[in-house]
Amino acid sequence: MPIERVRCFRKLDIPAQDVWSVLKGFDLSWHPMVTECSLLRDDRGAMMRDFKTSDGGHLVEQRTFVSDTDRVLCYTALSGIEGALNYTARVQVTNEDGQSVVYWGADIVAREDRRAAICEGTKAVFEAAFDALETLTAAPPDAISRQNTRTALVSGAIDGLPRLSYLTGAKPHASADTLVLLVHGIGGQASNWSEQIAALAGDYAIAAMNCRGYGDGTLGSKQTQIDDYCDDILAVMKHFGANRSVLVGLSMGGWIATSFAMRHGDKLAGLVLAGGCTGMSEADPQERDNFRLSREVPLSQGQTPADFADGVVTVIAGPDASDAVRSTLHKSMSDIPVETYRDALTCFCNPTEKFDFSKLSFPVLLLTGEHDILAPPAEIRGVSERIFDDVNRSVRHADVRFEILPNAGHVCNLEQPAIFNGHLRRFLARLPGVAANYKPSRTEKRRTKRQRILEAAHIEFCNAGFDGASMDRLAKAADVSKPTLYQYFGDKEGLFAAVLDQGRAHIVAPLISGQGALVDRLWDFSWTYAQFVLRPDMLSLARLILGEAGRRPQSAINYHQNGPAKAFEGLTEFMRAAHAAGELQLDNPERAANDLWSLILSGPRDYYLHHAGERPSDAELCDAIGSGLATFLKIYSCDLNGDTRALKRKIAEKTRPFC
Question: Coil, helix or strand for 501?
């Protein structure tokens, strides 16, 4: 689909930080076109704004990326713009000779009949904002709540093989549902997180674990693998009675935390990555070997970590690190047993996967020190942008924050504890159910209730079909009154349409994002489509609707119009745009859309509609999708050789895990 781009700039005779202090809060109450604005959080903790405009409009937008360091804010419109299929915006403030240059842009995918009006309206909104900013005084600084009291620390252990040890507050929250768990780097230990625990233990269930072999812990009976570290995190969570966690990882701990997110994302409420994320997972084999061998040479010569701790501190400490910080870093390194250091190094240099950031379905905060030479700011900024792009392509909305800690080296939480704690506290405070004093607003409660109704309705329609669905049962399952169902959705038809519309948006999102080459977009769409329509609940709903079509034809028509037909419209628009861009050669966009729809999954879907007890494997889906896309490209591609090579790479990447 064609993406319309609106770009506006204005130079303001106001310091950049003053302009940013107004924009970064995400509140639009100052905008001349906005009559009222409420800030709220969704069920993941993402920042949202619900506002009304002077012309009667009612919009909801979600913040998807923010960086105080770079003075950048990105957001997406969730509702309120008629005809918009995808609306993403970015605002950035830069400094120029004491003045500010404000860039505000939007990428818009919309129905053809509404495209021009949306673009014109967007430009008017941006220009009105510039006019208002010229007359505004700076907003108050973004306050970071700090505790005046500090909690005493206690250590503990979990007996077993291996024995795990940890550090926590003197009065930890008993059986907390969510544990903030801190994971150190290869040269660290749990005590490196003392400042974070002391400052935050009054409000959060928080603990720092010693990786196996560190502190008072022991190694396992064999070489540690990344899955072992993940199992250790689960063991610590269980020990504290936690069902969820916010993982905070530094350096190798960031790699461990991200690896855990790949395997147990459903157990995470948030992820904080400091001084690294990918570890050696994206390094080539030679680079991994060089890294490992350079650090093993001293061990092979009979040295211990204490013997080369001075050299390590020189590399990881910032130029302004205090003597106390350097002493702490030196002690952490010196305390590591040779066997533990070798074990951790071997595991770190033998990653089992390249991370799929699209799996990160929760808020993510990335931090690094200004003088970190192991995880330089430019590298971590790039990782934050990749996470942002990959999550958005996965049909969810990203929620990413990136910050640089000034005058800090690799272990930034030690060198700048107050700034680090401020970012961490602000991040934790917005995660529902994490902070002890978290209280959702009235608007948040309404949105949560609406989502709860939709989830209950989805289950009810899947189990009973449209005509058989009971509003009484649905109300009971959603824990609301029956009149509330009608208040939120009008009637049964409106509720059914809302359930199906969620599916439609889910399916076409990879196409309307406009990101990636042709094969990338087709591949992402195909897998999103497959994973959605082959879900057991969606197949169950399709069986019920089709089974009732003869007796209740209107139910089948409603199902088709509100679900598959809308998704097909989006696919057809994509074909038109790809043809206009010179990527596809076609005469009939609808026929091309239908060919793609049929080629990639018609066989598997038909099979599993009739075999309710079976589930397709990824290998089977990869074969069906790969074959279908190969045939589609042979017919329609304008660059068959290039697109075929790109498709083969996609298939190879996907099949590698189960070869």
Answer: helix
Query: With contact defined as beta carbons under 8 Å apart, do 507 and 562 qualify?
Result: no
Q: Please tell me the pTM assigned to this model.
A: 0.80
Among 86, 84, 511, 83, residue whose Cα is nearest residue 75: 86
Backbone CA torsion sign across 8, 13, 14, 16: positive
Domain final position from 122, 143, 164: 143
Q: Calculate the CA dihedral of residues 257, 515, 24, 253 and round it to 10 degrees.
A: 10
CA-CA-CA-CA torsion for 261, 267, 273, 279, nearest 10 degrees? -30
Report pLDDT for 120. Answer: 95
Q: In terms of residue numbers, what domain contains 648? A: 503-658
- Please check whether residues 239 and 364 belong to one and the same domain: yes
pLDDT at 549 over 90: no
| pLDDT tens per residue, range 75-93 | 999 889 988 878 999 999 9
Average pLDDT over residues 315-329: 95
Contact 278, 383 (CB under 8 A): yes
Upper half-sphere CA count for residue 117 (Cβ side, 13 Å)? 8
Quickly count: other Cβ atoms within 10 Å of residue 350's Cβ: 14
Is 228 part of any domain?
A: yes
415 shares a domain with 359:
yes
Q: Rounded distance, CA 157 to CA 166, Å?
A: 6
Q: Please report the sign of the dihedral spanned by the C-alpha atoms of residue 240, residue 246, residue 250, residue 253.
A: positive
Let me know whether 137 and 118 are in one domain.
yes
What mean pLDDT is predicted for residues 240-257?
96
Predicted confidence at residue 450, as pLDDT, reads 86
Are 400 and 366 in contact by the 8 Å Cβ rule? The answer is yes
- Whether residue 35 is found in the same domain as residue 132: yes
Q: What pLDDT is stored for residue 146 in this prediction? A: 47
Q: Are residues 295 and 413 in the same domain?
A: yes
Tell whether 194 and 112 lie within a shared domain.
Answer: no
